[in-house]
Amino acid sequence: MPLTIDLRSDTVTKPSVEMRRVMAEASVGDDVFGEDPTVKLLEKSVAEMLGKEDAVFVPSGTMANQVALASLTTHGDEILLHEHAHIIDHENGAAARHSGLQLRTIRDASGRLPLDQVREQLSASQHRSTPQTLVCVENTHNSAGGTVYPLDELRELSIEVHARGLKMHMDGARLWNASVATGIPERDFAACADTISVCFSKGLGAPVGSAICATREIIAKARRLRSVWGGSMRQAGIIAAGALFALQNNRARLAEDHRRASLLAQAIGSLPDAEITHEVKTNIIMFGWTNSHVDADRLVEECEREGLRFFSMHSRCVRLVTNLHITDSDIGEAANIISRHYKKLS
Ligand SMILES: Cc1ncc(COP(=O)(O)O)c(C=O)c1O
Prior knowledge:
By secondary structure, the chain is α/β, with parallel strands linked by helices. It folds into 2 domains: about 230 residues, Type I PLP-dependent aspartate aminotransferase-like (Major domain) (Aspartate Aminotransferase, domain 2, 3-Layer(aba) Sandwich); about 90 residues, Aspartate Aminotransferase, domain 1 (Alpha-Beta Complex). About 45% of the residues lie in helices and about 15% in strands. It is built from 14 helices and 13 strands. The strands form 3 sheets. The chain has a 7-stranded mixed sheet, with helices on both faces. It is globular and about 55 Å long. Bound molecules: pyridoxal-5'-phosphate (PLP). The site of pyridoxal-5'-phosphate has 12 residues, from α3.
């Protein structure tokens, strides 16, 4: 069997035999009628874990973000977010298409929203006609190399945003990673935001599903919007069981993904002219270079021929993501393959 080490994303994992068994045996009912006990249990568990009144299960992280945005805004509002937020770069213009939102962005290499820039934008908006109603953060930040939003910074931001009468949404697709990396409970991060989206099918390894957590009132609205957009599911307990299993069994082990990402970053970060552009604290590595002639797409192609898969971000940067299928020996092998081809292409 040819070697395959898939570091394209933490979304590529497949459910284990044990997870599949739990899914097959799940109690189910019609969730549109509010009768699926496994979905109800998942929603209750995740809401409690995040310290919110309620939660709603949705098919994807994108739907979770978009339903949350729509629940907190009115068509024609402006929202403030990072220029490389997943909501902007990878959601197909959904915020504009579904919710008629105007997006104002903040640029910062850290993936965070520096308070001075937020203040500047919020103050400037008082002299503009478009109502600014929402600020979005991403924790961890995908395109900023899985960086964790420091809790004290997040709290300060939240206080500022709420003092000015705006709301806050957190894209917490990888909130579990932020929590495991820092030892800070998810609910402490979640307390800063009005809505949080979390995902079960990334590092946690469930096949499908995300949730939005918020107050009962916001979740009632989100539940309706999920239906408007065709996202209500019937006997969804089968997939909710995978999500519950993932939450209970695969959360603590994220520390292994973080350790392996850090090992790989050390190995390839010492290559000539190479740079790990963001300190690796979770499971995402941004491997870049400045002067070398290596073309990122060529590097991806050459490595793929040897069974190692990852994505290029631009001509001088690639992204590698550890996940629950990756072993210590995969890390050693990946470092060798990358080093060899990087040096050859330099
Ligand atoms: C930070 C972040 N938010 C949201 C999503 C969207 O999740 P999905 O692919 O389930 O729609 C992703 C997907 O990778 C992500 O990285």
